Amino acid sequence: MTLKNNYRKLMDEVSLSEDQKEQMLANIMRADLQPVRRKRSWKPVYAFLTIGVCAGLVLPRIMPRSGSAAPMMADAAAEPEEKMINAVPAEQNTSFSIASASGSEDSLPAAEERAEDAGDPLAAALPFTVTQITQDYHEERTLITYEGEENSLYLTEIPEAVWKRSNDSGAISLPCEKDGMIRYGLAEKDGMVYVLEFAEPVPPETMELLLELIRE
Amino acid sequence: MALSVQEIRIRRLLNTYGDSIFRLARSYLHNEADAQEIVQDTIIQLLRYDPDFPDSGKEKAWLMKTAANLSRNRIRFNQTHETDELQEQLAAEEKTDLSYVWDAVRQLPQKQREVIHLFYQEGYSTKEIAEILGRMEGTVRADLSRARAALKTILKEAYDFEE
């Protein structure tokens, strides 16, 4: 005989009689059996708030770093003008502005208008105006849209690899020449393509110097 | 006279689980009147909270857990209010000569006693006992082992403790 068996045998003798059960039934029926309103758990609310606060604190710090081409393209329109102008040495006495490669036509007004405003007949005589440059990082190619003299639209694909081969340092250029003088140039820095628009035509040496500055 | 749904439910609970709850409460309280109140209170708690159970095993486990908690509360209440615990004799003691078993179990600490009861009488596994009592399974196993060792010493009988 094991202890377990003895214990069970002992306990099996302990049971409620029918009378006791009836009495209990009556007592229970008389008791307040109104359902207890379960307390609302605030845990999900706390969890939601915690996640929300953490996301609000952490995401703004992470997003600009994790963003790749898109934020850079967007920032380019606002940021680089001053920086690039400062990069031009004073002795060159050459001013230029940079239009972003973001593709906005507003950032690149027609050459004729700008030339007229600036009173620069040479600029007005340029064969075309670059209106849009789209850097397609996924396809590794650059689309350049420009407007010709006859107001026709040309689309030229220039693979980025070709541009880079033309300039081992990584800065790429596509100068637009007129009578041996450069009026427009394209330069790449940190994955961005910039359109350099010179207020006055510059000789090729100046273009090279500017590209050097940009590389730095 | 037609029985109400509530009454049918209470009868089912009493008939199905009444004895188990009663025995558990008695193993804690050693007092029939208190144990009966624990049975009533346990069923009242079930009716008021009305939890959802996937199966009857879970329902019984919930009732045993509630009965254990209520029994412990009653022990604390009795100690605080210095009520005289009625040292009632088990009905079985007169019918069988097993009172020494009960006496031995009563000497165990409460934690070991409840484990012994749930393991021997209700046949729960240590894992199930851990869930019912809200303890770690390892703790339950340790309590069970200590309880067996203590009973062996107390009883000094050639029980088979391997089961």
Helix content range of chain B: over 70%
Q: Share of helix among residues of chain A?
A: 40-55%
In the CATH hierarchy, the architecture of the largest domain in chain B is Orthogonal Bundle
Tell me what portion of residues of chain A adopts beta-strand conformation: 15-25%
User: What class would the helix/strand composition of chain B place it in?
Assistant: mainly alpha
The total strand number of chain A stands at 7
Counted beta strands of chain B: 0
SSE sequence of chain A, one letter per element: HHHHHEHHEEEHEEEH
Spans of chain A of at least 5 consecutive residues whose pLDDT stays below 50 are 66-112, 118-128, 146-173
Distance between the termini of chain B: 49 Å
Give the overall form of chain A. elongated
What is the chain-wise order of helices and strands of chain B? HHHHHHHH
Relative strand content of chain B: under 5%
The pLDDT mean of chain B sits at: 83
